[in-house]
Specification:
This protein is an alpha/beta fold. The chain has one domain. The chain has 5 helices and 4 strands; from the N terminus they run E-H-E-H-E-H-H-H-E. The chain has helices at about 25-35, 55-60, 80-90, 90-100, 115-120; strands at about 15, 40-45, 65-70, 135-140. Strands 1-2-4-3 form a 4-stranded parallel β-sheet, with helices on one face. Strand 1, helix 1 (about 25-35) and strand 2 (about 40-45) form a beta-alpha-beta unit. It is globular and about 50 Å long. It starts with 12 loop residues before the first strand and ends in a 5-residue tail after the last strand. About 15% of the residues are buried.
């Protein structure tokens, strides 16, 4: 009997932590494995790291992903005082990215990500009114209670 192989049988579940920091080259190697297992569930967990990359594309696309976002103010373990201190320490853009899951432009960028999206025809970031039914996969923000 042949053993399970990611290349031949594909994964049943693929969990990618800090998905926003995974380089595009790695996503390119994961894709063929997932092609061999079309029923595989993908779970991407991360805070954003700028407005680019596969995590940003998956989150902002209209693809069939269940999107779950839990922001810092929804987590009872994080105090309002801590958030106020962090907003001052980090500045608004990084604070929104790290604590509220906002896809912000990289520091020092000449153009904001939203400006670039409009320049190149994207309609802006996709924010569902309610979670998608299910599912090619799941994306979860890092502040889970």
């Amino acid at each position: 009997m042949r053993g399970l192989s990611l290349r031949h049988d594909g994964p049943a579940v693929l969990i990618v932590d800090e998905a926003s920091r995974v380089r595009d080259e790695l996503w390119a190697t994961i894709s063929p494995m997932l092609a061999a297992a079309p029923a595989a569930q993908q779970i991407l967990l991360s805070t954003p790291a700028g407005a680019s990359g596969e995590f940003h594309r998956a989150w902002s696309s209209g693809e069939d992903w269940e999107r779950v976002q839990i922001t810092a103010d929804q987590c009872p373990r994080i105090s309002a005082e801590h958030l106020a201190t962090e907003r001052i320490r980090l500045g608004d853009a990084l604070y929104r990215q790290e604590y509220f899951g906002a896809f912000v432009s990289a520091p020092g960028s000449v153009f904001d990500a939203e400006v670039l999206a409009h320049m190149f025809g994207d309609a802006g970031e996709y924010e569902p009114d309610e979670p998608a039914s299910i599912l090619q996969g799941r994306i979860v923000d890092r502040f889970i209670q």
